[in-house]
Amino acid sequence: MSRRSSAVAGLLCAIAVTSSHAQQPWHEIGRAATSAEVAAWDIDVRPDFVGLPAGSGSVDKGQEVWEAKCASCHGTFGESNEVFAPLAGGTTAEDIKSGRTQALTRGEARTTLMKLSTLSTLWDYINRAMPWNAPKTLTTEEVYAVTAYLLNLGEIVPADFVLSDKNIREVQARLPNRNGMTTKHGLWDIKARPDVKNIACMNDCTASPQIASTLPPHARDAHGNLAAQHRVIGPVRGVDSMRPVAQSHGQTIKLARAAAIASIGGATPSVSSDGKTAADALAIAGDAGCMACHAVDRKLVGPSFKDITAKYAADAKAAVHLQSKIKTGGAGVWGSIPMPPQPYVTDEQAQVIVNWLLSGTGS
Hints:
Layout: H1 3-22, H2 35-41, E1 56-58, H3 59-69, H4 71-74, H5 93-98, H6 102-105, H7 112-115, H8 119-129, H9 140-153, E2 162-164, H10 168-172, H11 249-262, H12 278-287, H13 305-312, H14 318-328, H15 347-358
Helix pairs in contact: 3-9, 8-9, 11-12, 12-15, 14-15
């Protein structure tokens, strides 16, 4: 190797070492996504139907899938229940002709088909997020079929219709609210004239704004007390929706438990066979997230505690069965929506809940 070659090689090594030291501290964390992983996430369908997979599905097939996997949450005819908002209804033949849902302009209760302006939105959401308990498990045919069934509920397509990637654009042209969306505003085009222009609101701005969301007063308690519930992912609890004024986290949980106890007979509930009270049982249930799907005296996603008491109070083998159900989860007894397992609930805690239920204090 010549002296010049050695010098060049040394310079390259120095550059490589310098570049390595200049890299960010997290450069060795993770790896590049594989093409298969990217393809698994790249499933969105655009409003112009780019990304829509080839396939088809009939209204009849959609009704079969709907009754098996969708009706328990959304109702047989899309009328839904107290947990989920209605999907169908509120549209007319005149709306299909005009492309603008008139009920929206009158301030009537809204359904999904009343608001839908792009059919790709409905197809894409069903494909990526449904069924609620098993997202992304529907086949392409089933997604087309369920979409067709929903459209038939709104009388947008006939009962013998087969929806496919070949005719979906024609169906888009029949959506009752296809003309209800506009892109002629500042939120869509940053070069356009803004929707509002108010100089006064730009004065005396706070240095550190806080981003928050609130429910309108009439909807705060539509799904029970959000403070006694939490999301499946993460220990995130909602506000005390039974009160008009927001409370701290600890206060909301205490208030939720107190409300639940009051619903079964006051602040001094009966004592179960192990000496524990309803307060003890409900405290465990609240911390474990059981109140996200169960209420004491009414059905939410799952049965009420009173219904569970009525079903198992006289069953000598119920204690072992219910304790196992709390720990491992299950489905099929109260409907098709599964109850997730609670691995962080100890055997002793599960026993407190079960003893309280079987003692009759929940009835």
